[in-house]
Structure formats: C-alpha cells, structure tokens
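quick q for whoever's on today - can somebody do inverse folding on this one?? i tried earlier but teh output was garbage lol. tokens:
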C-alpha cells in the first residue's frame, strides 16, 4: 500500500508560516488496528528536524499549496529519545490516540535488514504469547532522498533502568521488579531464545492502571535485533542481583565480584570461553575464540590506530559569530590573554601518556575482563550541517571508545564489561541551528542533568567502586565539573581558514591585509581560554592548555590522516592528561583549604559567644538592614520605580567576569504591572547624563539556562530612591542574533497579553531592553524559584499548575513547551516560563497540553510536544 507523508515545517519568518511537502512512503506491514488504511500519513517534526542529521527541506518532495486534509491523516509528532529512536504522539482524525508510542528509524541496507529481523522477532514473540514484550504496530519504508528509509512503530514501554530520571516518579518495588525479571528470563529459557543484548537499558519500567483502578508496574524487554532461536538452551539461573544483565542468557553464570577478585582472572576467563565454545559447537554455531592477550591488544590497537572519517559541509548557510562578543567585553582585566606560545612537543607528550598507560597496565600483569571487542561505530553519513552536528559526530563516533578505553585501563581494569566513568557530552538544551561554532561540549565525569550534579555510572561500576572511591569522585565532580571544554566549528572553508591563520603569527607591527581582516573569530577564540576552570580547552579537535596569562598551542593536526600517533591515541592521551591534572589540582585545593582554616582560626581576634550565636550588628548597620527589608515588602512600589526608568546599567560580576565599564541597555518594552493594560510604549529619548534615581542597576550572576532563544542568568536588580536602595532577585534573558531577538520580542508580546488578562502564575515582567552598542536584547523577569525538574521530592503546590494552565488557555494562548524545566515552584506559588513557542491560533493543541500537564503532576514521565 502506498501512503503519503506531508511534512510540516515552521519557517523562521516572523509570522511562523507553515509549509507542507509530500513524498511517497510504503507501508510494508501493519499488525494492529491502530493504523487503519488512510489517504495520507502526516509526519510533523519539531523545529523542522527529523533527527539531528536530516532536516526537512523542499528537496524531499512536492510542495503543497494547501494544508492536507487532516480528516484522513495519521499524524506522528516526533521527539528524540535516544539515537535513532523517537517517542511520538499519534493523532487520528484530529484527536490524540490514547497511549504512548515509539518510532525506531533505520537507514542503509545493514540497518534496515537488522530492523526487519527485529520486527519479525516481535511478531514471533507475539504469536508465542511471550510476556514482557512491547506491542508493535507496523513497519514503514520511505523512498524519499535524505530521509530514513525504514521505520518501526511500537508501544512506549516506559523508562529504561539505566536512564530512568526524576521525571519518572514510579516507586520501585524491588521484589516485584526482580520477580518480573525472573519471569522474563524463564520465558526466554522455555522458548529457547537467546536475546544476546540483555542490558539494563533494554529493560523498561512503566506504570499503568489495572482493571481495579490501582496503579501497577510492568517490566518489558526491548532491543531484539540480535535475538536467535536455538534448539536446546541450557538453564538460565542468573538474576539481576547476582549477575550483569548482558550475561543472563548465556550458558554459564558470572561469578560474584567478590569471588572474581580473589580468583585468578585468567583462569576465570579461560573457563568462560571454553564453556561458550562447547555450547556454540553443540548448537551448530562455530565461534572463533581468540586468546585473551589477543583481545587486549586488538581492543587497544583498534582505538590507538583509529582516524575519523572526512566530514563534508552541506550547502546550508552558516552564520559566523562576531569576533568580539558581549561577554568578551566584560572579562576581568587581569585575565586577558597576553601571550600565545608555540610548543611543538604537545603531540609527542600526549602520545607518550597514552603509551605509558598501556605499559603500566601490562606491567601489573592485568588483562581486560571484557571478551567483546571495542569498536568504533560506522557513521551513517559523512555530511554535516553546522557546528552542532560536527560535535554530535565527535561524541557518537570518536569519543565514546576513547573514553571507555581510557577509563578502563586507568581506573577499573577488573570491570567485566566495557564501561566508563568519563564522557564527552553537551548539556541537554535547545540550541540554535546552523551555528558556526559550538562552545558547550566538554569532557566530564558521567553525571546527571540537574544541579547539583550527581554521579551516574553503570550499575556494574557502582558495584566495583568502593565507598571511598565514590566519595573521592564526588569531590572531584564538585570541584571540576568540566575537565576539557571544546569549541567545535562547522566544516566550512571559513572555519578551516580561521584555524590555519590562528597558528601563523605575524611579525610585530605588520599590518593585516583585506584577506586577513576577513577572518573572523580569532579574538573570540583567544578570549575564551580563561572562561573555564578546566585543565585544557580544545578548539575544532586541537588543543590549548590554560595558564594565567598565556596559551600554549600546537600545530594543527589533520585528524583524518595523522599517523604515529593516530588520532584515537591522541584522544586517549588527552583525556588521561586532563583527568590527572584535575586530580593534582584537587589535592592542591584540599591542602590550600586546610591551610586557610588553620590561619583563620589563629588570626581571630575575639572569640564568638559561648552559645555559638553571632555578635549583634552595629546600630547603624541594623537600621539600614531594617529599612531595606521594609522597602522590599512593597512589590507594587518596586514595579512602579522600575517602570519609570528607561536606562539599565548591566555589570557582570561572576566567575571570570568583572565589567571594566557597565553595559548600557535602553528600554524598548514597558514594564507590565499585573492586571493593568500596558500603555502604548514610545521609545525614550537618550539623555546626555542620568542621575542615580533615573536608572536601574543589574548584576547578572551564574547562567541558569540556555536555549534557542538565548541565555538566562540569575541576577540582582537594584533601584535607588533617595537614601534607600531596593533590590529584587531577577532572571535576565539575553538574545544575541536577529532570529533570537525576534523570538524574544514575540515572547514579550505573549507576556503582555497574559498580564493584560490578569493571568496568575506569570513572573513579574520588568521590561524589554536593548544594548546601546548593537549588542543583545534583554528580557527582565522576576525570579520564580526552582524548576520542577530540579526538585528533589514532590512538594506542595504542584496541583496549582492545572489552574494556571487553564487561565493561560482562557487568555487564548497555548504554551507550546510544557515540560519540567519550564515550570517553577516557589513554596505554594507556581509559574510557567519560556513562552517563545506559544501560539494563539490553534486551540486544538491545548487539550494535548492539559494531558501532558496531568502526567507531570501525577508523576508520570513527560512527553515534550511542539503543538500544531
């Protein structure tokens, strides 16, 4: 049967016009009545992206002049889950289908054949009434160029045990879950099935309501692409508490860790291989078992001899940043980069570090416990669109095996599985598209997404590491959340020229010609060096080391052809050097802290009172504090004072920033007192000078958010009235380029509408301001507390979100981005933030938002959805 996909795109135009394109898609199989025969099937992708590598574009198919007939459509709203797997919302006849679904996509002959096998396995399991397997709904194939060619739709089984997060509030009943595990393993045994990929990430936990109305838990097993049916299968006795998940379906049982540590490891591995070889021969599967030493050398050489694939830039306009950014103007004067020194030995030093790591490993007579090879994944494409996709390519296809090998050899060689305590990653946020450079990538200890960060290791590592080692790693994470930070460029000619020119110093006094002056970003790169307290900073896959006043650089490395050493070996050496450097600096910090405590206790002139209370404040200071507290009680007065001031002086005083001169922001949008109709705003005239009572002062603090629209900082807003200074905690949202500023102005208009309708649960809006030096646009909001995602436990006030959302909908606004990060809780007060995706034209999206909110308030995992 032939179906059509009409792909809906949001343009970047101010009016957000929707465009539709059509391309043919074949439904290969359909094993459920969920997807009945339809005229068209419509696929909507958030932000015009089907995944991180392919974007919807006119080249995909025929342009449609009108919106497709939705009465005959099946709509799939996609949200990335992991890799090529997406959660999706299914809409039939304009209404959402109850339940949650997953779309698994594949491209290329090998991936598609694997997905077909997995689909057939699901059908066989369903026919055999196998418990603990998710429902499957159909297999689709697309012939459109640039799109994934095969897709499998299945039920959403819940959160995996490896990646379950705070959004999943299902209480874990251990005995029940273990019993479910055992039942699944027993069914594998009874049906003679070898899963071959039993890991924690393939066991998913979900919460549902039974016939009696009570909430129950279900455990399902996914990831069946490598499963096989055997004639006779030995008994399976492993349980989640006694063995790793990936060994539960083999013919022998992994010994407990305590036994393995006290037994000769080589004998254990030899016996395991012999048992696997005998079992394979008995079942007709002849496996080639290599000696243990060969596995060690092969795994190490696979990483040390690896060079990545050559990337090609697709024809998409990429916007280079300005050479000097807003933040660069506010660096602390003492941290300006004064020298760039060439050190040709860095490559050799990193190579020696990697060689020394293997030498130490072999000198201790150790051997790798994992009998699987450590391989690099083959990229499905060699084309990238911008810096973010170059970074994604590096994380997925280069850094992961390097991190794993470095961590295994240096910290846990006795681990029976490939695992790592370090990773190269990027904070999960919404980032703009078609960027020239990306700064947010870093090497770090594996940790969660919410501050304060918590370690997130694989369970097998949690068992191996003792409490003392885990405590040391916690201190390590608190002191150095980033070990290496990298600025990654798009694969454009401009980026290559920028990198090449960076290492060609001109003689003193030499004037740059037009060609040299056209190379942007060099100053920006150099000024970024002191921004992070990490060991090293790497730019476009080469490196710099941090020093107080200088940067040490090495020649540019051709990552695709470099030999002796190859690129993989350099990465392992770089990672290990950064970890060891941070360990040494942590020791210095501890020693310095002890010395400071000792000196401060000796220098104390007068002891504290015996009862441990603080000394009373002086009369003058006490009166000033009381006056300030009294002034802070009047929010209406504060809003009025802010509203009549058109100039905001912004001074950065945090981390490495200390503004030599404050930035001047002029008001471009009025303050919005709750319940009042905003007056017609007219741009104020600039004055030659301002008194202290005619401007406000803003001191932004640490960054608390970053996304497509811009960067958000926590800060302090101060206004001086006569002899008093009144302050409030605020959130300053900065938008830098034209598209971001357009989105921020749209968000300000939504706030104006909500305030005019007197909607509760909206942060105080102090106004919209523009940097007078053609810099960023700033939206100034009140500070609303912690996000729902950052809350450790369920607290009071969550039920108030429902009432607030209803009021927002009654004002004719759909939020468009309901998720925990955009929901704030401050005691019993709750607030919605981030209205840059809000819409006032499609009321049908509001019902879906209510359902998403109900799931959140009830503690169910949330589904992010960009409304129609």
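ok took a stab at it. sequence:
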């Amino acid at each position: 049967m032939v179906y059509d996909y009409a792909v809906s795109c949001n343009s970047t135009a101010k009016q957000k016009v929707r465009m539709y394109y059509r391309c043919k898609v074949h439904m290969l199989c359909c094993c459920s009545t969920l997807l009945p025969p339809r005229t068209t099937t419509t696929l909507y992708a958030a932000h015009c992206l089907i995944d991180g590598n392919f974007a919807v574009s006119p080249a995909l198919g025929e342009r449609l002049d009108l919106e497709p007939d939705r009465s005959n459509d099946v709509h799939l709203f996609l949200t990335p889950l992991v890799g090529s797997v997406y959660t999706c919302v299914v809409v039939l006849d304009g209404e959402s289908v109850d339940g949650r679904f997953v779309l698994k996509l594949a491209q290329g002959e090998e991936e598609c054949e694997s997905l077909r096998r997995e689909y057939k396995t699901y059908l066989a399991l369903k026919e055999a009434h196998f418990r603990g397997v998710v429902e499957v709904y159909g297999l689709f194939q697309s012939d459109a160029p640039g799109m994934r060619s095969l897709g499998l739709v299945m039920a959403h089984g819940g959160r995996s045990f490896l990646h379950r997060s705070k959004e999943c509030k299902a209480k874990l009943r251990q005995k029940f879950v273990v019993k479910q595990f055992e039942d699944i393993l027993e069914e594998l045994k009874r049906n003679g099935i070898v899963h071959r990929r039993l890991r924690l990430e393939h066991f998913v936990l979900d919460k549902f309501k039974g016939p009696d109305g009570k909430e129950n838990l279900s455990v399902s097993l996914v990831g069946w692409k490598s499963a096989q049916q055997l004639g006779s299968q030995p008994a399976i006795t492993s349980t989640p508490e006694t063995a790793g998940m990936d060994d539960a379906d083999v013919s022998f049982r992994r010994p407990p860790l305590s036994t393995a540590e006290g037994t000769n490891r080589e004998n254990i591995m030899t016996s395991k291989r012999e048992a696997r070889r005998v079992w394979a021969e008995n079942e007709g599967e002849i496996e080639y078992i290599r000696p243990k030493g060969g596995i060690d050398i092969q795994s190490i050489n696979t990483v040390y001899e690896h060079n990545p694939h050559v990337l090609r830039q697709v024809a998409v306009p990429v916007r280079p940043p300005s050479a000097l950014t807003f933040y660069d103007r506010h660096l602390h004067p003492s941290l300006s980069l004064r020298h760039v020194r060439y050190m040709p030995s860095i490559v050799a030093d990193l190579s020696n570090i990697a060689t020394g790591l293997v030498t130490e490993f072999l000198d201790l007579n150790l051997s790798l416990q994992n009998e699987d090879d450590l391989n690099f994944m083959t990229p499905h494409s060699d084309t990238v669109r911008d810096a973010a996709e170059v970074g994604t390519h590096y994380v997925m296809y280069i850094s992961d095996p390097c991190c794993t090998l470095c961590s295994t050899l240096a910290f846990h060689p006795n681990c029976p599985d490939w695992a790592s305590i370090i990773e190269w990653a990027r904070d999960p946020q919404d980032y703009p598209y078609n960027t020239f450079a990306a700064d947010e990538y870093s090497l770090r200890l594996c940790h969660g997404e919410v501050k304060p960060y918590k370690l997130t290791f694989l369970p097998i590592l949690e068992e191996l590491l003792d409490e003392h080692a885990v405590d040391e790693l916690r201190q390590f994470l608190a002191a150095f959340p980033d070990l290496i930070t990298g600025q990654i460029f798009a694969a454009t000619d401009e980026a290559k020229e920028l990198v090449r020119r960076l290492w060609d110093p001109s003689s003193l006094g030499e004037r740059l010609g037009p060609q040299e002056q056209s190379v942007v970003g060099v100053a920006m790169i150099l000024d970024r060096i002191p921004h992070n307290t990490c060991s090293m900073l790497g730019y476009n896959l080469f490196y710099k080391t941090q020093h107080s006043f200088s940067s040490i650089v090495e020649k540019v490395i051709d990552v695709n052809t470099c030999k002796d050493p190859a690129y993989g070996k350099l990465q392992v050496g770089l990672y290990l050097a950064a970890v060891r450097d941070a360990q040494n600096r942590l020791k210095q910090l501890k020693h310095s802290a002890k010395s400071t405590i000792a000196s401060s206790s000796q220098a104390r002139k007068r002891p504290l009172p015996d009862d441990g209370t603080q000394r009373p404040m002086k009369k003058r200071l006490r009166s000033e504090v009381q006056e300030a507290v009294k002034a802070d009680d009047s929010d209406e007065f504060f809003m009025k004072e802010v509203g009549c001031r058109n100039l905001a002086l912004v001074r950065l005083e945090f981390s490495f920033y200390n503004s030599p001169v404050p930035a001047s922001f002029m008001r471009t949008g009025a303050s919005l007192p709750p319940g009042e109709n905003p007056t017609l705003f007219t741009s104020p005239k600039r004055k030659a000078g301002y008194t202290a009572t005619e401007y406000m002062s803003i001191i932004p603090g640490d960054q608390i958010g970053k996304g497509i629209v811009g960067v958000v900082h926590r800060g302090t807003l101060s206004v001086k009235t006569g002899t008093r200074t009144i302050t409030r905690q605020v959130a300053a949202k900065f938008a830098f380029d034209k598209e971001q500023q357009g989105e921020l102005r749209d968000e300000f208009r939504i706030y104006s509408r909500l305030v005019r309708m007197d909607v509760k649960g909206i942060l105080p809006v102090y106004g919209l301001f523009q940097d007078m030096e053609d810099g960023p646009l700033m939206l100034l909001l009140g500070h609303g507390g912690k996000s729902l995602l950052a809350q450790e436990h369920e607290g009071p006030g969550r039920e108030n979100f429902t009432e607030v959302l209803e009021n927002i909908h009654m004002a004719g606004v759909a939020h468009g981005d309901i998720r925990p990060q955009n929901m704030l809780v401050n005691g019993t007060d709750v607030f919605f933030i981030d209205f840059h995706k809000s819409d006032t034209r499609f009321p049908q999206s509001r019902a879906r938002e209510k359902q998403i909110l109900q799931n959140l308030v009830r503690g169910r995992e949330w589904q992010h959805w960009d409304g129609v």
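fwiw The chain has 18 helices and 36 strands. also The mean pLDDT is 70. so keep that in mind when u check it
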